[in-house]
Amino acid sequence: MKKILLVCTGNTCRSSMAKGIFEDLIKKEGRNDEIAIDSAGISVYYSEGANPNAILAAREMGIDISSHISKQVDEYHIANSDLVLTMTTGQKEILKARYSGYAFKIFTLKEFEGDSKTWDIADPFGGSLDIYKRTAKEIKDAITNLINNKKI
């Protein structure tokens, strides 16, 4: 089984939505027994649920992330993942510096997808529900491209 780790800053917005979206898409493809998805954050000081707007944006896509609990990424997560996908170049560089022995498997989501002019997905934290919906759509589009292009 291929293990994919999705990483953002606090693991309450982007990576929590990305995990739910990714799991939904691979389930619809009938591949949920081939791919395991997890998520974590680079700056999680205490565990908390997904951001309320992230929950609502995902719910509008038919995805329930209401039981998500944030967690701090650590070497165990990186070592036990086949692929680590961050939401920004900055996050990618932080992980590569912290876990240099695993740099070969750390990319931004949009970099790995390969069909984008920018590799960063902006943080919606503090934004309106509409901003979260746009972010969720951007994430879904990138993951859909990964699946359709057989990169996953």
Automatic annotation (TrEMBL):
InterPro entries: LMW_PTPase (IPR050438), Ptyr_pPase (IPR023485), Ptyr_pPase_sf (IPR036196), Tyr_phospatase_low_mol_wt (IPR017867). Transmembrane segments: none annotated. SMART domains: LMWPc. Pfam families: LMWPc. Residues 2-149 form the Phosphotyrosine protein phosphatase I domain. Keywords: Hydrolase, Protein phosphatase. The keyword S-adenosyl-L-methionine does not apply. SUPFAM superfamilies: Phosphotyrosine protein phosphatases I. The active site is at C8, R14, D123. One of its GO terms (molecular function) is protein tyrosine phosphatase activity. Belongs to the low molecular weight phosphotyrosine protein phosphatase family. This is Protein-tyrosine phosphatase.
